[in-house]
Structure formats: C-alpha cells, structure tokens
Amino acid sequence: MINFSQELNSEQLQVVLHGDGPCLVLAGAGSGKTRVITYRVACLLEQGVLPENILLVTFTNKAANEMVERVKKLTNREEKLPWAGTFHSIGHKILRAHANELGYQKNFSILDSDDSESLLKLAAKDFSISAKGKKFPTAGVLQGIISFARNTEKTVAKVVEERYPQFSVFEEAITSVAKAYEERKKEANAMDFDDLLLNTLRLLNISEIRKRYTQQFQYVLVDEYQDTNKIQAAIVKKLAEEYKNILVVGDDAQSIYSFRGANIENILQFEKDYPQAKIFRLETNYRSSQEILSLANAVIANNPKQYKKNLKTILTTGVRPEFLPHGDQGEEALFIAGKIASLIRGGIEEKEIAVLFRAAHHSQALELELMRLGIDYDYRGGLRFFERSHVKDVLAYLRILNNLADTTAWLRVLMFEEGIGPASAGKIIDEVKKIENINGLENVAQALSDKAKSGWWNFMKIWNKILEAGPGNPAELVNKIIASPYKQHLEAEKLDSAERLEDLKQLAVFASRYDNLENFLADAALQEAFNLQRQKEKKDKIKEGKIVLSTIHQSKGLEWSAVFVINLSQGAFPNERALREDGGLEEERRLFYVAVTRAKKYLFMTFPMSNSRGNNSYAGSWGENFVNEPSMFVSEIDSELLEDKSFLKNVTVLNDPSEGITYEREDEPQKKIKPGSFLVDVEDL
DNA sequence: AGATTTACTATTTTT
DNA sequence: TAGTAAATCT
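Output (structure tokens, whole complex):
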C-alpha cells in the first residue's frame, strides 16, 4: 500500500483521495500537479480499478510515459496503462478501430504539418490569384487559417476576418482552398493532426461507438487543461459522459498555446458544464524560492483576467534573481557559458541547469560559445528526429507501401529523382490512382516523357529493393532503403551524409520495436517512439548529465535548480509578431511566467543591449538600427526583487546606431559604448 | 513546357 | 539555413 499521507501534503491528498465525480484542480506553478495525477491514478489502481478503465490525457507523449513509469513504481505493477497519451495518440487509437465508419481505410496516413502544407499547396494551385497587387497567402499562412478555424469551430471566412484582415479580399478563394484541401486529404486516405481530433469527436457522436468508450472509461484525467482547445474539451466531455468521473488539472496563468486554438475559457466552461464540480486549489509551491516566486507573481499580476491564486512557498534562499544586460548576443553567450562553468564548479549538476529562450534560433550564439568551451548540452529547440528530412524521406517510402494513395509521400520521394519535377510527379500520382495494388507500378512509366521515365526507373530501383523485405517487418524495410540507391542519393547530395546514414540506422533500431508497419508509422508521426527512445537514452547516460537548452514552450512542466532566460529584449520577448495578435501580450506574459517558474533556486535573466550586424538575431537588427530595448516584462518587476537594483533603475538605452549605446547607472557616470566593445566581467569566468 | 540552377530573403511558439 | 521566386537550361 502507498502511504499517501506521508508523501503528499494535505492539499494534494484531498485530490488524490476525493477526486471522484467532476473535479477542477486549479494548480499553481510548481504545486506538484503531475505528482497529484500520478498518485491519483495509483490510488485508483490500488482500489481495484482496471488499467483499461482509466483514461489519462497529457500534453506530450513523453509526459504520459513518465507518469506511467511512476505509477508502475508506486503500485509495484508491471501492467501499463493502455489509455495514457496525448489527445492525438488517443484519438488515433480510437480512429484505427473505426476508420471505416468515417469513410477512411484502416491504413490511413497521418500528415504532419509539413505534409499538410504540401497538400495545401497543391490544393491552392488553382486558386492563386492576386488582387490589387496583394499576394495570395502562402501555404503556411493558409494552413494557419484553416487549422485555427477547425480547432475553434469557426468558419474560415470568420478567421480571415478576425485574424488575417490583410487577406480579406481572398476570403472566398481561401474558403475554396480549404474545401479542396479536405477533398485531397480524403483522396489520399490521410488525416492531418486536426483530423485526429475532429474525427474522434465525429466518431463519438455515433451513439453505439460513444457507448462503447464511455462505458469503458470509468475515470478520465486530463493534465494541462488550460491548453486544451474546444474540440479536445468536447472529446473528454463525451468520454466522461457515463461515469462523470472527470478530473481536469490546469493553471490559467500557464496557458501558452492559444496560437493553436487553446482556450483558457475551457476552465470556466468546465464549471458551467458541471455546476456540482468539486474545486480543488493547489497553492503551495514546492519548486521555487520565495524570491523567484515573488518576481513571477509581480509580472503575471499585470494580466487582468485571471483566477485569483495565492501561491505560498516553503523555500527561501536569500538569493534574488538577477537581470544582466550585456553588450550583444555574443557577450551574453560568453557570460552564460562562464556562469554555467562556475555553477558547475560550485557543485550544481549539469542536468540541474537550463537555458530557456523564446524562439529556437535565439540559442545560436550561445551554442557556439558552449561548443567552444566544451560544455555539452542537450538541445530541445530544434528539429526533432522524425522531422529530419532524410528520416522523413525513408518514412515516405514506407507510407507509400502502407497507403498507396498517400499523395504527399509520393511527392516527397519523386521530386528528388532527376528528371521529375512537380508536373511529372503529378502525372505519376494520377497514374497510381488507377492502380489496384503495388505490383502494378511498372506500368506507370508509359505515361511519362523520356526524361521523367529515367527518374521513374531510378525510383523503381529503390522500390524493388524495398519489396525484398517482408512487409510486416519495419526494421528490415528501413534497412533495405539504406541499402538501396537512396544511399547514393544521400551521399551525392548531402555533405553530412555519414551522419544522416547514422540517423537512419537509428531509425531501423526504433523500427525493430514494431512488428507492424502501420503502428510504426503512426508512432513516428505522433513522436511517440522517439520519446520512448529518449527515455532509454537518459537511463543509459544517467551519470553524464547535460545542461539543457530549450524553448520555453518545450520547458513546460519541467524544473531546474538554475535557469537562464535569455534574449530578453523588446521584440524578441515579448515577440514582436505575437504582440500583433489579439491577447498576444497577455500570452507572452504567461510565457514569461512559465519561463521564470521553471527555476528552483537561481534565476538569471539576460539581455543583449545590441545586435551586431550580420548576427542572426531579432527585431531591430535588420536595418541600421541595432540597439535593443530591454523587455517590457523586466520593467514590470519591482527593483526590490532583483539583485542589482542600481543598474536597472537608471539604465537608459538610447538609439544612436552610429555611436552604439549610451547608458547610465547610479554608481557610474554616463557611458558610451560601441557594439562589440563590451567586456565581460572576468570574475564571472 | 518542364526541370534545374541561382539569387535572395526572412526567421514564434507545436501535438 | 531553408524555402521561394526568378532566370536559365534542355
């Protein structure tokens, strides 16, 4: 038996023991909400609830896997929770079982955002008109519009009107493109990420199917509820219909995904949907020191629309957070690298240190510096494994094998054959539609020009190699592709082909966990396999910890002893583009809140006063003006809360591009410095 | 016409 | 860097 009262505080215990019926848990940052859900699940299992009767929805598959592992340990059971995962992976599981009912074939493909963008491009081709010198939105923008519309249950026209008024002349055309896109997807027997949610909801509207699942899920638990959208909220509401044991956990102050249709109002709506809902508050912060928490509270207080929370903490370190301006990004990087080295010397473990930033490319200068100093880091901002182009190439071959109608997969593998461009690729795809099964591919060549034909036969060489493998063996399939002329293609085209081939061998290792192509492809698309692998890697390297570089979005739910939030200049953070959106400033502020509340003991906020020309940096660096202003969030912090008060109080950064920056502080006379001439405090290194 | 090469520009966040 | 538009090649 688990000794709950010993391992949980009284707030947490309430939820774990009494979380039946509809429950809304308002959990502040660092209040142990993951812990509460984990223990709640363990508690249910100990009460004899069967694993398959528990639905646990988390924000990432990784979070789900970690929770499941902890539950296993707590309860000393070997069995997994079969229904733990993201909305997308759970939706997919349900859809697999009932695809036919919605007019899909069971082997449907999942389109990631690149795939759907390329399909959209095809769909948009017929509609690309320009009006009054205005250009039709790019595929990326179209995707944003259509996806947002679907996730918020608004019409495309309405979204254009509200969020993209500059394209209002194209309202009708965009609506037509959206329709054409839907048709293309259906033809390709494919679903995009939004479909995984929308179609799940459609299935649950069929009463026999709904019954089957509502009767199964005695308990429904949802983490990060503040970041769910309308569709997701509707899905869980349906699934919990029978038993009404639905427990949602969230923090409105940490809602950072509204660009994806997430809706904080879901929390308010929950209370309306279940007027009898129990409301729990977790207001004790176990993570951060009082000093850090005060700073976080001071900033978030500027967001007027909020649940009132009264976060208490039990930790006081006496160390205040620091705000540290530097000359430019290079010096910022140098400082951070030096500080990290001294923190490590001071006894803080590498894995207890993180550097957080607003956008993936903000870390570039820092990465160079860390590499130079030989500090190893784990980078979470950039391309993930399954998003690398060569991995996607290989997956595309497998997708075709699994679903011959998969247009985007075809486009991908055909376009890099010499002699085949968009036109011939289109022709081939049309020909393939006429074919009954994969053996008929030989005949496609007839419709092609001589040049395209040679490209086609090159494709067929790879294809025939793939067919040597057993169809039920994903690992062998991957290995066949590595052994095919695709390898020569990589070697000819890419300078780093050796590394890429290594990746592909890794992919074969992932694949060996599967005996079924469909499941392998689905997990790859939903990033599930990758996360499992990452966990394994972590276990292997438990001793040689690395510091973490991450976007703030990806740092959600995590914590470190020391956290750097970098590039705190106006325009970079808050992000200039985000500010243009409705409610953008509030969301950026919540993002800042998330960033600083990741820190347990030490928080450093850094700010590059200038961007050197040619440096890959943000706002203001492009024209002549390369002087930054500090982030407005910093001015929302009472100087009493910071370490170096004098600096913050009197710094004035003036726009004087030719001369550099003029600044003033209490303890020094006015100083003028040209960009690039700043010196780093040697003590810090 | 369709494929390929070259020149140029713009970078938010993600299941 | 990577994705796109324009220019050039076949």
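The mean pLDDT of chain A is 82.
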